[in-house]
Automatic annotation (TrEMBL):
Keyword Coiled coil listed: no
Alphabetical GO biological process terms: L-histidine biosynthetic process
Name of this chain's protein: Histidinol dehydrogenase
EC nos: 1.1.1.23
Length: 428
């Protein structure tokens, strides 16, 4: 953990990127070479290569079944404690209501000569990757499958790592909580899962792939971008907290650690205009870090953390806009005015009660968010990401052509004689 009380130093973009060690992500040539080698083998040998990698990495024989049956999903879900299943259902209901409330409206613009606009249609086939290396993440099922279902996607393929040949009980329980018949659970993980979705090996070829993953998964998604669409390049989890120091420091310490426990590369930061508050939170982070379950992960990720002083809260937000964090907490008494100054953030939590973990599980918006500074140009996923916009135009009458034919002169300038004739012949 690093403490910075020099605001001018803190404000330098290079210093901020150094603090969060962002520069080297996705630039490991060794990993990239491994990813390319596996993908090339799968492209060459198809499902046989997928079967080999499934056995090697997941210890699963795909001849026993690529897609989990409905009976398996139900039987695995029964292994989950009732209170956990009820919590998943509660979250699912709230998430669904939130996304159903988003207005998806087509648009039409009319002039005397023509009408133009666009309509929205769902993507037909999507793939969703659910990480399963260190733990099960049923919440990611809720935060992706429900959004796809609300958007009207017909076929939703969920790839999840099998455990002793079975899908994880919590994954199965989350699938049931989504209450949709559109999902097929595919017993694949890693590069072989992304390749199978992108190439249509054993399942329908998908049109777009969603979901977070490790370096190998993210680089595989990057490789196939263009052949299929992807949601984004997901890196390590991040949180930046901006506080006026008028909140319980213990709360902020736990918020800090809630991101630090994600993985060893997670990024955490706190900026305040109160130095005593910064010191108090830092001490509590040190103390509480000894109580968490994953001490070794937290110990590593806290090497990517900083505590910074800013003269004003507006200055703190200006630093946040440079960092473009995945999660931004504005832990202040009156957060709305500061929120209006936020330009770059994946999602923002307003006020002292709204800690980031509530957003992970139950508030409504998806927790699949841009990381590594990509909140400058990406957004968290929502129903629009599962839709495509199709433009349309219609010229109303032949008489209306007269006011449009000067467009043929532009075609002539660009050297497209057929374009020109295509327009002019309609007025002959």
């Amino acid at each position: 953990m690093i403490f910075i009380d020099d605001f001018l130093l803190l404000k330098k973009e290079a210093e901020l990127q150094r603090l969060w060690k962002r520069g080297s992500y996705f630039q490991d040539n060794k990993i990239f070479d491994e990813v390319i080698a596996i993908i090339n083998n799968i492209k060459s040998r198809g499902l046989e290569a997928v079967k080999e990698y499934s056995k090697k990495f997941d210890d699963y024989d795909l001849s026993l079944g690529l897609i989990a049956s409905e009976e398996e999903i139900i039987s695995q879900a029964r292994l989950v404690p009732t209170d956990v299943y009820n919590a998943l259902k509660h979250s699912a209901e709230r998430i669904k209501r939130y996304h159903e409330s988003v207005k998806i409206e087509s648009f039409k613009y009319e002039t005397e000569e023509s009408e133009s606009g666009f309509k929205w249609t769902p993507i037909e086939n999507v793939g969703i990757y659910i990480p399963g290396g260190l733990a099960a993440y049923p919440s990611t099922i809720l935060m992706t499958v429900i959004v796809a279902d609300v958007a009207g996607v017909n076929n939703i393929y969920v790839c999840s790592k099998p455990n002793k040949g079975k899908i994880n009980p919590y994954i199965a329980s989350a699938i049931l909580a989504c209450n949709t018949k559109k999902v097929k659970v595919v017993k694949l993980s890693g590069i072989q899962a992304i390749s199978s979705m992108a190439l249509g090996l054993g399942i329908k070829k998908v049109d777009k792939i969603f979901g977070p993953g490790n370096d190998y998964v993210s680089l595989a998604k990057k490789y196939f971008f263009g052949e299929v669409a992807i949601d984004m390049m997901a890196g390590p989890s991040e949180i930046l907290i901006v506080s006026d120091g008028k909140v319980n420091p213990s709360w902020i310490a736990w918020d800090f650690l809630s991101q630090a426990e994600h993985d060893k590369n997670a990024k955490t930061g706190l900026i305040s205009n109160e130095i005593d508050f910064l010191n108090e939170v830092m001490e509590r982070v040190k103390e509480y870090s000894l109580r968490v379950l994953n001490k070794h992960i937290v110990e590593s990720s806290l090497q990517n953390s900083f505590f910074g002083f800013a003269p004003t809260l507006e200055d703190a937000i200006s630093i946040s806009n440079i960092l473009a964090p995945e999660h931004l907490e504005i832990a202040c008494e009156n957060p709305e005015e500061l929120f209006n100054k936020v330009q770059n953030a994946g999602t923002v939590f307003l006020g002292n009660l709204t800690c980031e973990p509530f957003g992970d599980y139950i508030l409504g918006p998806s927790h699949v968010l841009p990381t590594s500074g990509s909140a400058r140009y990406f957004s968290g996923i929502n129903v629009y990401d599962f839709l495509k916009r199709t433009n349309f135009s219609r010229i109303k009458t032949k008489n209306a052509l007269k006011n449009l034919l000067d467009a043929s002169l532009i075609a002539e300038v660009e050297g497209f004689s057929a374009h020109k004739k295509s327009m002019l012949c309609r007025n002959e």
